[in-house]
Amino acid sequence: PLSKSMEETKTDSLSPESRYYYFTEAQLHRKTGNYDKAIQYLNKAIETDPESTYLRLELATLYLLIKDKQGALNIVERIIEKEPENLNALIMYGRLKQGVNQVDDAQAVYEKIIAMDPKQEDIYLLLGGLYIQEGKLDRALKIYGQLVQNFPESYAGHFFIAKIFKEQNNTMGAEKEFKKTLEMNPDLEEPRYELISLYEAMGKEKKVIQLYQELLKKNSQNIRAAMELGSYYHERGMTQAAEKIFKDLGERSIAQREVIRKVVTLYLNTKEYDAAAFILEGMLKGAPDSSELHYLTGIVFDGKEDKDAAIRNYKKVVPDSRFYK
User: Fold this and answer.
1) b/e string for 236-270 if b means 16 or more Cβ within 10 A?
2) Contact 202/171 with Cβ under 8 angstroms?
3) In Å, how far are 75, 78, 117 from 90, measured between CA atoms?
4) Nearest 5 degrees, angle CA 307-CA 313-CA 314?
5) Rg from Cα positions in the chain
6) SS3 assignment, position 135
7) Which long-range contacts (CB under 8 A, 24 or more apart) does 169-172 make?
8) Could you read off the pLDDT tens digit of each residue along the chain, which spans 325 residues?
9) Closest by CA position to 246, among listed 272, 218, 282
10) Which residue of 47, 180, 183, 193 sits 20 to 30 Å from the alpha carbon of 32, by its own alpha carbon?
11) What value, to the nearest 5°, has the Cα angle with vertex 224 and ends 222 and 226?
12) Per-residue b/e over 41-58, b at no fewer than 16 CB within 10 Å?
């Protein structure tokens, strides 16, 4: 009799009338990417259990998957009307408000969340990011301060504190926090570049060169570090050291397309034509027959409005090159 009762319970829980049946069907359709069908089944599950917040949040998630942010927002707003302190609903609500660019509302929701639960690490990062985006640096600093207080090992928190200090010309504070970030995660590159930028502004030449060399020691193929170090040498009249780096990059560009892409990303897209000109001319010493380098050099001199130099380089693009016009 006991085993029969258990079997009956199992059968009942999977019957078409039960929310479990509809929910399971919804999940199966979701996994196969049939979101419309998943929504249909989930709505039926909600009809059998109208008070289930969990099911409604699942429905809101499905609306997000079909890019219906407003539909998801409407569902979550109704949940919060009934349960104003439902943490999961508030987190989704904040993200939705941010997604539809209602920044003030998103900030207010995120503030409420961390007041309710100070252990929501991601929310500090989202909120701090919104404040930085709006230029509210003091507020962002306060939020990141709370983050590292609650999560002392958050290297992201220390990194953003450093960025704010740098923006506020608090060089000592910025240096300390960038170093703290690197102590916690020595493999990170971005704090090193930020620290390099800080030392450049402070005129600490030896520390700038040392940091670039550390990056290259960690990865001798680091194109950005090599390119920027070469530029730094060039700007300070250390011509021989700069030429050696640029020639090597030119040789590498023949087989490594990433070298070319990095020049474009760092210097052409940002219209830093003066720097791009001496870098590319230096690279051409390592690859004098490279049509790609000559073409890019032509673009750079066009940007500098030096038509003669531009034409001179364009003429060196061979007819079978994809850059030949």
Assistant:
1) eeeeeebbebbbbbbbbbeeeeebbebbeebbbee
2) yes
3) 12, 11, 11
4) 85
5) 29
6) coil
7) 171/198, 171/201, 171/202
8) 434 344 444 444 444 467 788 889 899 999 999 999 999 999 999 888 888 899 999 999 999 999 999 999 999 999 999 999 999 999 999 999 999 899 999 999 999 999 999 999 999 999 999 999 999 999 999 999 999 999 999 999 999 999 999 999 999 999 999 999 999 999 999 999 999 999 999 999 999 999 999 999 999 999 999 999 999 999 999 999 999 999 999 999 999 999 999 999 999 999 999 999 999 999 999 999 999 999 999 999 999 999 999 999 999 988 766 665 6
9) 282
10) 47
11) 70
12) bbebbbeeeeeeeebbbb
Token output for 201: 């502004």
Say if CB 162 and CB 174 are below 8 A apart.
Answer: yes
